[in-house]
Every structure is written in structure tokens, then in C-alpha cells.
Design goal:
The protein has four helices and seven strands; from the N terminus they run E-E-E-E-E-H-H-H-H-E-E. By secondary structure, the protein is of the alpha+beta class.
Length: 165
């Protein structure tokens, strides 16, 4: 049974080559958490969604979301690239780190709209020239709870330990 296409906002976290000319693209979405998308023939010249699947790009995507396995995107609108982040290797590293922390803190497919909004705001501010190190420190501290660290006044402890592989 085919599911109906859905519109959602997303931020490209990463992409990797798959087979001869395809790409696997991980996107942080506003309604579905992080999802992996398959783009057939994306590494060939003239691919129509090439600009929409660059790292740190945000857009309104339309596609088929699957609970398990790979999802697919048909089209993208309102594409916005972070050109300053991509041009500066240090800012690029901070932005990659923030998105990777969010990706590791929550399982794929778990809706995390507050972290989508945080990531979008942080990337926008980094692209505007704000201090990427400060924004990264804020993300690290705010994500401590997702990794099992809880603080109540005078004492702090690990409730659970998350092991990332």
C-alpha cells in the first residue's frame, strides 16, 4: 500500500554515496525527526534536486515518509542554503557537530520539533556570523539530558548512559 505524499520542513544533516549514482541523505524534519532518504541518480549531472540536498540546506520537502526503511522525496520548495557556513571550515565543523549531536541524541523517526527549531535557529545565526562556538556550547549543555545527564541543584548524576557506536 502506498502512502500519500506529505509536505514537511527539513534540514540536511549529511549525505553519502550509494551504489553507482545514488545518494542517501539524512534529513532532520520538523514532524518526523531524523529520516534517511534515497535519491536515485542524484550524483548525475542535471539532477533537479541537487541544490536541495546539500548539507545545511533547509527547505519545504514533499515526499513519501516510511516508518521503517528509506523514505523518498519528490520535490523541494523554499530552498535556503547556508553559504557562509559552507565557506568557512571552522563554522562548518561546528554546524556538523550540532546536527550530529541532535542525530545521536534521539532515535530516527522520533519527532523532535523543539530540536528542529533549535537547529534551524542555530544554523541561521551561524550563517549570519554569530559565534559558532558559543552556539555549539549552548547545544551541548541543552542536550545533556538527552544523553542521560540530569542536574538538580547541588548534585548531578547519570540516570542512563547512552553508548553511541
Amino acid at each position: 500500500m502506498k502512502s500519500a505524499p506529505q509536505k514537511f520542513r527539513g534540514i540536511v544533516i549529511s549525505r553519502q554515496a550509494y551504489r553507482e549514482s545514488d545518494l542517501l541523505v539524512k534529513i532532520l524534519t520538523d514532524r518526523f525527526g531524523t529520516k534517511m532518504f534515497m535519491f536515485n541518480r542524484a550524483r548525475r549531472p542535471g539532477f533537479k534536486l541537487a541544490a536541495a540536498i546539500l548539507p545545511f540546506t533547509s527547505a519545504v520537502y514533499e515526499g513519501t515518509i516510511r516508518a521503517d526503511g528509506l523514505s523518498y522525496i519528490r520535490q523541494a520548495a523554499d530552498v535556503s542554503a547556508c553559504t557562509h557556513i559552507s565557506a568557512d571550515i571552522e563554522t562548518d565543523a561546528y554546524a556538523t557537530y550540532i546536527l550530529a549531536l541532535i542525530d545521536m541524541a534521539y532515535p530516527d523517526g522520533e519527532p523532535i520539533p523543539q530540536w528542529f527549531d533549535f537547529a534551524a535557529t542555530a544554523l541561521r545565526r551561524m550563517d549570519a556570523g554569530l559565534d559558532a562556538a558559543i552556539l555549539t556550547n549552548i547545544a551541548e549543555v541543552q542536550l545533556l539530558g538527552a544523553f542521560g545527564w540530569h542536574h538538580t541543584g547541588k548534585t548531578a548524576w547519570f540516570v542512563t548512559v547512552v553508548i553511541c557506536r
